From TrEMBL:
GO terms for cellular component: methylcrotonoyl-CoA carboxylase complex; mitochondrion. This is Methylcrotonoyl-CoA carboxylase beta chain, mitochondrial. Belongs to the AccD/PCCB family. PANTHER family: ACETYL, PROPIONYL, PYRUVATE, AND GLUTACONYL CARBOXYLASE-RELATED, METHYLCROTONOYL-COA CARBOXYLASE BETA CHAIN, MITOCHONDRIAL. Pfam families: Carboxyl_trans (PF01039). GO terms for molecular function: methylcrotonoyl-CoA carboxylase activity. Residues 1-258 form the CoA carboxyltransferase N-terminal domain. InterPro entries: AcCoA_carboxyl_beta, ClpP/crotonase-like_dom_sf, COA_CT_C, COA_CT_N, MCCB/AccD1-like. It is an enzyme of class 6 (ligase). Carboxyltransferase subunit of the 3-methylcrotonyl-CoA carboxylase, an enzyme that catalyzes the conversion of 3-methylcrotonyl-CoA to 3-methylglutaconyl-CoA, a critical step for leucine and isovaleric acid catabolism.
Amino acid sequence: MKVLVNQLHERAQKIRLGGSEKARERHVSRGKLLARERVDSLIDPGSPFLEFSQFAGYQLYANEEVPAGGIITGIGRVSGVECIIVANDATIKGGTYYPVTVKKHLRAQEIAMQNRLPCIYLVDSGGANLPWQAEIFPDRDHFGRIFYNQAIMSSQNIAQIAVVMGSCTAGGAYVPAMADENIIVRRQGTIFLGGPPLVKAATGEEVSAEDLGGADLHCRKSGVSDYYALDDTHALHITRKIVRNLNYQKKLDVSIEPSEDPLFPADELYGIVGTNLKRNFDIREVIARIVDGSRFNEFKALYGDTLVTGFARIFGYPVGIIGNNGVLFSESAKKGAHFIQLCCQRNIPLLFLQNITGFMVGRDYEAEGIAKDGAKMVAAVACANVPKITVIIGGSYGAGNYGMCGRAYSPRFLYLWPNARVSVMGGEQAANVLATVAKDQRAREGKQVNAVFSVSLGLAEPGSSAPRTPQCSRIRAWLHLEDADCQQFGLPYALSLLLELLYWRLLVVIFQNFQENTRETQTLV
């Protein structure tokens, strides 16, 4: 596990750099802060930034590197208010939008809407990446949905604030135009539907970018912008003042107990949860290392014991935990559905710890009605009216992914540990199924299955017996263990941030009791 963690650190460090060295130097030479510097300057000093989907776009496009999907998103505290921050990285293809960039931007807005968090857009983008326009522009959840979401959130009194720190071209011009308030940086920010080349082509008029859509024009004449900033630092200072005037009220309507450390050290998780997904471990050992005082009040401990359910607290916040201890049987599914109903009655958020191969199969189990019992659990997960958080700590295969609140079941946040695998079935099982189907088909045709045929089907690789490891959910985030001296979050603390946020439909308080030396791990959604 530590090897995977180290590999993840190395990739993360490279991703944090953003674009190429040449692009970064050119960006800085224009008097601009880098995207991550802008985020760091915006949030309250000493407060954390809960970043989403840092590995979005990783090896997604064959011939192009798109670190972090070309955009930085996450939750940060600004003037004491928890906000969604979306920052374009202009060092990556001029901040233009790839398909994954759009998806990541929309995901940040989805979190903002679910949790009623103000949005701050640090805009420095050339708009859509034209070679990819077929996958960016026409569909419902493409580029235009960004502006639709802004309008909907504004109508719901979820503040929309835009800071124009660079290009804001074509459709992208609607980000500041549709914001409740926007700031533009002098001789740096520009807002226009059509840039100088398009204006010249369409009308023959020659005009500079500054004259066409610069800060002086929009602050003194058009009125499109509300605040005039001298540079990036000044713009971020104005942003903090705007947030201070939002009049957001924080209130907690639940009893919170004093936080306690688990009795067992979190770094023991390295030995408990390994990279060999065939090796079983007791999920209670994981729970004991993330909950307050390692206290876990287990529900139906002797019934359906391949599913562990119970109540605990994380940083003082109550939570219902559902974890896997093997394949799901009918008893496990009925137990899970019952527990979910209890949490819904008591308004307690649900935490799913996934390590699941699926539901049990076989003639006897089908005769017992496992399909119907499994459907009851899946329905309970889908209909749960409390916030759900999912952490995939091992395998997540087939219908087990559904019953344990996979992405399709709308968890508020979903995390993967670096050993996690998500697919319809494991690689070995998939190969066996395909081989059986092929063998049966060949037998019906009176033919034989040989090694050459297996290779041609992709069931085996010539000269290699190495397994093909599925890498699903690339654009999603990983929650990985990390050394405490990296000043990142531990799993319990990361969950506490989300629980604090989720409890009251997310009006409020994340990061309230931030401690510099909290336990390990970095989070991404």
